[in-house]
Task: structure prediction
Amino acid sequence: MAASCAKARPEVFGTPACVTWQAEIGPLLAANCSSCHAGATPAGNYDTTSYAGVLGDGSDAVPNATAGDQHSRLLVTLDPATADAVHQGVTELAPALFPTVQSWVVDCKLSFAESSIHRPGILDPASSDFHGQLVRDEKYDFGVCQSCHGTDYSGGSSGVSCLSCHTGGPTACSTCHSAIAISGSHGRHLGGGPLGKVYGCNECHIVPKVYTDVGHIFLADGSLDLPPAEVTLGATAALTPPGDTRSAPPSYDPATQACSNIYCHGAILGDSAATHTQPVWSAPGTGQADCGTCHGLPPNHTGVRACVSCHPSVVDKDQKIIAPDKHIDGQIEFGDPAAGCAGCHGGASSAAPPPDLAGETSPSALGVGAHQAHLSGVSGLRGPIACNECHRVPTAVSSPGHFSGHAAGGNVTDGAVVFPTDPGVGVLASSDGAMPHWNHATATCGNVYCHGGGTALGADTTAGVDRTPIWTASGGLTCGLSCHGLPPAFAPHLPTMTRFDCSSCHPATIDPFGTVILSGPPGSETSTHINGVVDVAP
Result:
C-alpha cells in the first residue's frame, strides 16, 4: 500500500500521526472532486466539500466511507481498477488522490485532525470516539466542553467553535435531533408524508423546555435515561370526534413498534373498509399512510369514490389533499357550508342531483335517475314530490343515518337510504296501506302509492300498468299506464269510460278536458291528484 505522506509526522497517542481530513483530504477533494460534487445539487447527491458529506450517504442512502473498510464506496469509485470512465480521468490527472484517500479511510480510520486532546474519530458518527458519544459518557456535563471551547462555545482557548456546526449551540434540539427525519417514520410525520399532514414532536413525545428536564435524557435520580425515547401520544391521537367510538386510549407498543386506538390512523372511525389502522413505526414507506388505509376508498358510509364531491375544500378531483391543515383535524369539512345540501349534491337551482356525489349528470346514472322529475313535477300529474317522501332529510350534515348505507329500516342506494321507516318520512308513498320498497339491483320501486300501490289501486287489474318504474329510465309518466288504468279496472268504473269522464266524479282533481288541475307558483304547485286521498264528488 502506498505511503500516505513522505514527511515524518509527530506522534499522537504513541503512534505516528495519520492523514487527516483537515490537513490533506479536504483540500485534495476540493481540488479534484468538488467541481461536480458541491453546491445545492451535487452529482449523485454526494457533497465532498465537508467531512460529514464525504462520510455520509449518496443518492442511495448507502454510507460512502466507513473507517477501516477497504471496500468503502469512496475507494471503489476512485480505485483506477474499478473506477468508471469519468473517475478514471480524475485519478489519471491526480495520481496521488486514490492512495492518499485509501490510507485515510483504511489506515487512519477517517481521522479528522491532528490533536493531542481528541482522537481521530471525533467527528465520525460511526466511531466510538465520536464527540456525541463522549458528551454522553460525561453525562452531558457541557462544562467539560466549555473549558476549552468557551462558555458560549464560540472557540475559547481551543480556537475551535462548536457553533460552526451547531448553530444553535450544543444544547439546542437540532444538535441531537437534526437527522431525526431518517429515523423510523419521523420523516413521514415531520415532513408531511404522502398526505401532506405535518405533526409536531409533542404529538408523540413530551417535549422538554430545557434539555435537563426529567424524562428527557435524565431520570429523576439523575441517571441517564437510556434510549429509546418514550412515546407519550398526544392530543391528535386521543381525539374522539362526535359520532366516533373509542374502545381504549391511544397506545404505542415498544415491542412491536405499533400504534393502536389512534385517531390519526382511523382506528376509532369504525370504518370496516379501512385497510391499516395499526401502523408500525419501523416500516416507513410501505404504504401505511396511503389514502384508503385510515378510511376506505370509499369509506363504508357510501359507494362514492369522488371525495371532492363532498370535501372540495380538502381534496381535489385527483384525490390529492390540497389543504393538509383541514385533513385529520378532528372534524369533517363538508362541501360549501353556505350552499347547504347543494354543497355536496345538486347545484344552484336544486339540492337534488344532478350532479350526484360521483359527479354524474345523466339520468341513466343511479345517483341521478329521476330526482329532478320528482322535484319538478314534469309529468304534470301532480306538483313536486318532496325529498322526504323517499329519503330522510337530515337537519345537519352529521345527523345519524345521513351517510350510513347500513341504517336500519331502509333500502340502500349509493349511501342513501330509500324508504326508511322513520316517522314522517314517506307518508305519501305509504298511503292507503302501500308498503314501498326499493330494489337496488334492478333500480326499481315497488308497492309505492304514487305509482299504483296500496289497497285501492292495487285492486286495479288493468293490463300493462307499470307499478315498478325504473328509476333510470328515460321518458315521463303516462296517464292510464303508469299508476292505474284508464279507467281503472274496478267498480264503479266502466270499461267504456275515457279521461273526459273523470271530472264527473273527481271535479276537484281533473277538469272536463281530462287535464289534472294544478295550482300555485312553478315548483310549488299543488293538486288533489296523488295526494293520498281520493277526491270524489258528493
The longest strand covers residues 251-253. Residues 179-301 form one domain. The two ends are 121 Å apart (CA to CA). The mean pLDDT is 86.
